[in-house]
Amino acid sequence: MKVYLVGGAVRDAILDVPVKDRDWVVVGATHEQMLEQGYTMADPEFPVYHHPQTGEEYALARKEQKTAAGYRGFELIYTPDVTLAEDLQRRDLTINAMAQDFETGEIIDPFNGQEDLHDGFLRHVSHDFVDDPIRLLRIARFAARFGVWGFRVAHGTHALLKKMVRSSELNAIVPERLWQETERALADSAPDRYFHVLNQSGALAVLFPELAVLFMLPEAHQKAQGLSKLALAAKTIESAESRCAILFGQLTVEAFDKVVVRMPMPKRFQQITQQVIHAQISLGNELSDEQVLNWVKQQDGFKKTDRFTRICQIIKVIKPAVIHNIEFLQRCQEALLPVSVKQLDITGLKGAQIGEKLDQARREVIASVKKEVMT
User: Fold this and answer.
1) Measured between alpha carbons, how far is 248 from 260 in angstroms, rounded to an integer?
2) Residue 299 in 3-state DSSP?
């Protein structure tokens, strides 16, 4: 019975980045032996156990045999004679197919993962890579995570991604898993790389056809416009929700509605994106005082000032041509915040009359701001 640290923990230690989770593989053991030593089952369907002291996950070395389409179509073999090399061979990328001997600290690297880490390549371990469609999403997400360091998909691996797209494997990806990987990518250091890999492989047209349209416009400069904006924003905007709104906020109302129907996107992602899409509609024109007031109201600029600022920030990224309008709207919103009913003479007024009196005072403030801007 031999224990090895495997996967991401080994990779991240070599890269000298914080190790978040540690996964272990046990070679030469049986289910009964694991239970005898105090391990508890972590999953009733798979040979994965919790360590009795640390709670970390320990899995019996296993190999897989493809039996059906999709990422669940595998038969697991985890007998004591399965070797460490066989276990590592079933993994997706060479940089994830390394192990470290628990006792000696020796790095076991049968597929040259350290060399690919050094050279910045995301490369498949074996041609079995194509059997699991989730691997396409994972490699795209690793491109997002390590993109700022220049990591790129190896040529041979890119060819396999295109092969997966041509097959029917992508149809087996459930919307929940697609969104899970997408949300993670949006939080990574170079989220644009995730969508770039999907687009280059042809998967974007299958998984996000609404976004793929951004790359099919006739103007050459438009083909990378959507991702260039996301890449630029990622340098200063850390929120995954805001990054989502920057990319999906370039769609029409109808196109984004299709995404929402198909995708289990959390409400916080949906709402900010929908607000951004609707908020852009009238910004190309010169705004009247009434339009300015309505726009600030629609973005809830009197109560949720942080969200108002966030929406303005996102639109500035999406539509640089309307930055002047957005800055004017922000200036008006700031000037309007002190205006309240308490400052007004509402003697004899009731209900809607009070609201109209307040709005009139607000319009006067907007007119004043506009006059200052023009002089």
Assistant:
1) 11
2) coil
Distances (CA, A) of 211 to 8, 203, 215, 245: 30, 11, 8, 12
Whole-structure pTM value:
0.87
φ and ψ of 74, to 5 deg: -135, 145
Q: What is the pLDDT of residue 282?
A: 78
The helix (H) or strand (E) run that includes residue 13 is helix 8-15
For residue range 96-141, what is the model confidence (pLDDT) as tens digits? 999 999 899 999 999 999 999 999 999 999 988 988 899 999 999 9
Number of domains in the chain: 3
Whichever domain contains 160, its CATH number is 1.10.110.30
Say how far apart CA 12 and CA 1 lie, in whole Å.
26
Q: Which tens digit of pLDDT belongs to each residue from 272-330?
A: 999 999 999 878 778 899 999 999 999 999 999 999 999 999 999 999 889 999 999 99
Q: pLDDT (tens digit, 9 = 90+) per residue, 163-194?
A: 999 988 888 899 999 999 999 999 999 999 99
Q: Mean pLDDT score of the chain, rounded to an integer?
A: 91
Residue 261 has pLDDT above 60, yes or no: yes
The β-bridge relationship of strands 57-60 and 23-27 is: parallel
User: So what's the pLDDT on residue 84?
Assistant: 95
Residue 178 lies in a domain: yes
Q: Which residue has the tokens 């852009």?
A: 280
How many CB atoms are closer than 10 A to CB 85?
A: 15
Query: Which of 96, 124, 126 lies closest to 13 in space, CA to CA?
Result: 96
Residue 156's nearest CA partner among 116, 105, 213, 106 is 116
Of 83, 102, 119, the last residue of a domain is 119
- Could you give the 3-state DSSP secondary structure of residue 246? helix
Q: Is 114:107 a contact under the CB 8 Å cutoff?
A: yes
The boundaries of the domain holding residue 143 are: 120-237+246-254
